[in-house]
Each structure stands twice: as structure tokens, then as C-alpha cells.
Amino acid sequence: MIIIISSPSGVGKTTVAKVLEKSNFERIVTYTSRPKRPIETEGVDYYFIEKEKFNELIKQGFFAEFSLVHDNFYGISKESLKSNSKHKILTIDVQGAAKIKKIMPSVVTIFLLPPSFEEWMKRINKTQRNNFDIRLKNAIKELDEVWNFEYAIVNYSVEKTVKQIQTIVYCEEVKCKENIKSLINELKSNIKQYEED
Ligand SMILES: Nc1ncnc2c1ncn2[C@@H]1O[C@H](COP(=O)(O)OP(=O)(O)OP(=O)(O)O)[C@@H](O)[C@H]1O
């Protein structure tokens, strides 16, 4: 199962995803053409690649989704969205989430909200992100997109948010979906066989 966690900047999606990674979740690492910051690690925070290489990969159809933000490319490889034994977590901006949901309707989308404006500003300030004003301006549009998500979690504490996401996954796993069809058919044919014997 792929779980998308989206939020405006500074609400806490990266922090929450890193905690989930310690249990049975694999964090999808995305690609960027922006330079690596000193605190970032290649292959953990992003795969950092040159712009030329990024263009080449676009032409090869390597990305499921990509976007150009402030002159830097960000993208998700098709390979990383393939299913394996682990649940996957993708932290992505609100617009990216909408694009992925369109091409992969089975993804589960979660929107994180801050508990209050004051608490949110404290968190943003802690990370000392650039383009603070632009991030806040974008957040107005992003907040309106919450209605297109399946779940909305107010990120009061990381521990509680992680528990809520785990609960969502448990519930999603037992939803009536395609994967029970073969079991239902098998049970029905066993009943028929039993009746005939
Ligand atoms: N529930 C929480 N309670 C208190 N602090 C939190 C909580 N969640 C995250 N934080 C803190 O808020 C700050 C921003 O978190 P984080 O970097 O995870 O946000 P983000 O949504 O990934 O932001 P961006 O989109 O800009 O990368 C960090 O300092 C983090 O430790």
C-alpha cells in the first residue's frame, strides 16, 4: 500500500515519515536537481542529480510525476511506486499528491494540519526554511485542497499522528477490495463441490 502524506511546509510530514520508517514502512526517496544542503544525505533526503541528467530521465519516461519548482526539478520514479512487501510512505507537496492520486487511484492520501497558526510558525521557524513568505502564501491554496484528501490529521504530537496513520493502514487493509475476490470465488466453488459430494 502506498500512503501519501501531504501538508503545507513545516507542519511535520518529514518528521512523521521518519518515525514510520522505523516500523514496517518504507519511505520513498524522490529525486531533485537542487543542490544538496550540508545537513542532507544523498539517498536519504533525496537523490540529488544534475539538471541535464534530470532532463534525460524525463525523456526516458523514468518519472511517474515531476514538477519544476523555483527553477529546480522534483520527481518520483516509476520504479519506486512498484509494490513490494512493505507499505510505502511518500511525503509530497499537495499538487504532487493530486497528480499521483490521478495516475494511481489506489494510493491512500493523508493531509496533515498544524494544531494552530502559532504552533505552526514555531515549527517553521525551527527549521529556518528559505522563502518563508512564499511558503505561507502557497499554504492558503494548499489548505483549500484538504477536501480532495481521504484523511485529515491534526499533527498535535508525532506519536499520536503516527498511531493514527497506522490505524488508517489497518483499516485500509480490511476494506472490501479486489484482493478478496479470489477467496470469495474459491469459497463458493468449495460450497458447490461440497453440495455435489
Ligand atoms: N507533532 C509535532 N510536535 C512538535 N513539533 C513537531 C511536530 N511535528 C513536526 N515537528 C517539528 O516541526 C518542524 C517541521 O517539521 P518537518 O520538517 O517534518 O515539516 P515538513 O512538513 O516536512 O516541512 P517541509 O515541507 O518544509 O519540508 C521540525 O522542527 C519538527 O521537529
UniProtKB/TrEMBL annotation:
Specify whether ATP-binding is a keyword of the entry.
Answer: yes
What Pfam families does the annotation carry? Guanylate_kin (PF00625)
EC number(s) reported in the record: 2.7.4.8
Q: Does the keyword Kinase apply?
A: yes
Q: GO: which molecular function terms? A: ATP binding; GMP kinase activity
Which family, according to the similarity comment? Belongs to the guanylate kinase family.
PROSITE patterns per the UniProt record, alphabetical:
GUANYLATE_KINASE_1, GUANYLATE_KINASE_2
- Name a GO CC annotation attached to this entry: cytosol
Q: Which CDD domains match?
A: GMPK
Q: Which SUPFAM superfamilies match?
A: P-loop containing nucleoside triphosphate hydrolases (SSF52540)
Top-level taxon of origin: Bacteria
Q: Where is the Guanylate kinase-like domain?
A: 1-170
- InterPro entries registered for this protein in UniProt: GK/Ca_channel_bsu, Guanylate_kin-like_dom, Guanylate_kinase, Guanylate_kinase_CS, P-loop_NTPase
Protein name (record): Guanylate kinase
- Keyword terms, alphabetized: ATP-binding, Kinase, Nucleotide-binding, Transferase
